[in-house]
Design a protein that fits this description.
By secondary structure, the chain is an all-beta fold. It contains no helices and 3 strands. The protein has a 3-stranded antiparallel β-sheet with strand order 2-1-3, with no helix packed on it. The structure holds zinc ion (ZN).
């Protein structure tokens, strides 16, 4: 079973953190901030097929 990991950027220290989506109460381990920006995985619109 694949784990659902989501990347967040801490608004304060700008570090990229990866949390499990089931995690509740996210706290930045670096600065203790609880505010994060969710980072959407970059989905390339055009994939070069060989
Ligand atoms: Zn932080």
């Amino acid at each position: 079973m694949e784990e659902k990991k989501v990347e967040y950027r801490c608004w304060n220290c700008k570090k990229i953190l990866t949390f499990d989506v089931s995690t509740i109460g996210l706290i930045c381990p670096y600065c203790g901030s609880r505010i994060f920006y969710k980072i959407r995985p970059s989905m390339p619109r055009h994939v070069k097929a060989k």
